[in-house]
Design brief:
heterodimer; A: mainly beta; B: mainly beta
Chain lengths: ~120, ~110
Amino acid sequence: GAVVSQHPSWVICKSGTSVKIECRSLDFQATTMFWYRQFPKQSLMLMATSNEGSKATYEQGVEKDKFLINHASLTLSTLTVTSAHPEDSSFYICSARDAGGPEHEQYFGPGTRLTVT
Amino acid sequence: GQNIDQPTEMTATEGAIVQINCTYQTSGFNGLFWYQQHAGEAPTFLSYNVLDGLEEKGRFSSFLSRSKGYSYLLLKELQMKDSASYLCAYLDSNYQLIWGAGTKLIIKP
């Protein structure tokens, strides 16, 4: 089946530093990837939609200069949290849509737990 | 607009049956998903309904009524490992997932 990986699975960083999270589709090509954020006891919130070779589309309220998304290849999208602050501590999950599959299907990565101290 | 509701928490007994309801209101609809999420993990796919009716998959079944904006997830023969959050989400007209807040299911022996 379709597998999506994320790296790292967890990261601790100091306030003011930047951290990069990678999302990879391992056995399929993903023209579209989605980045979600989930705070404790809350549901997933879509941050942005990442399309290969073009700029990401950010949801309302998400700062594009703070959450940099790069989707340079059909199998890799990265999310960089710049100048991280404790309130950015969250569970970040990516999902990917198979370019050759049904449009309704998304495959989720295992998530990245970010803690900013 | 985007509006999707499900109960915050439910409790059931091991071996029993539980039904988790989800209602939604949207002008564009391309199907409804149910996901299971254990604490600290990403959601895992359970079911997808795009047409009205009941889809059965082992111990889990999912129902959809598009005219009523209503879905439910039915879990039979509950096991302790079924303790998790269950998220319903619909696909809007742009094929983006709109998520409910999740229902925390507690299974008691």
